[in-house]
Amino acid sequence: MNTGMIKNTLRNYIELNDIGLSSLFKVIDTNSDQVLNMAEFMQKMKSLQVYSDENEIIELYKLLDKTGTGNITLKHFI
């Protein structure tokens, strides 16, 4: 799946579930540390059934990790 399709899948999920990005971030941030690591991101994306393919989740994570630190902050998520 290409980058555009991966982003559109997330947009569609947000629209269909009438949830904002900051609210979705809070749902994914299971330990409430204001940072998403790959493990919690992967687990929540699967459990929310946003993506079925782990490679898509990894690709999205890399896109959102704009600093390349291996973590996603709310600022980068939005």
Which terms summarize this structure?
single chain, 78 residues, mainly alpha, 5 helices, 2 strands, 8% strand
Q: What pattern of helices and strands is seen along the backbone?
A: HHEHHEH
Share of β-strand residues: 5-15%
Question: Count of helices?
Answer: 5
Supply Rg.
Answer: 11 Å
Describe the structure.
It contains five helices and two strands. The chain is mainly alpha-helical. It has a two-stranded antiparallel sheet with strand order 1-2. It has helices at residues 3-16, 21-28, 38-47, 54-64, 74-77, and strands at 35-37, 71-73.
Compact summary:
This protein is 60% helix and 8% strand. It is mainly α.
What is the topology?
Elements: H1 3-16, H2 21-28, E1 35-37, H3 38-47, H4 54-64, E2 71-73, H5 74-77
Helix pairs in contact: 3-4
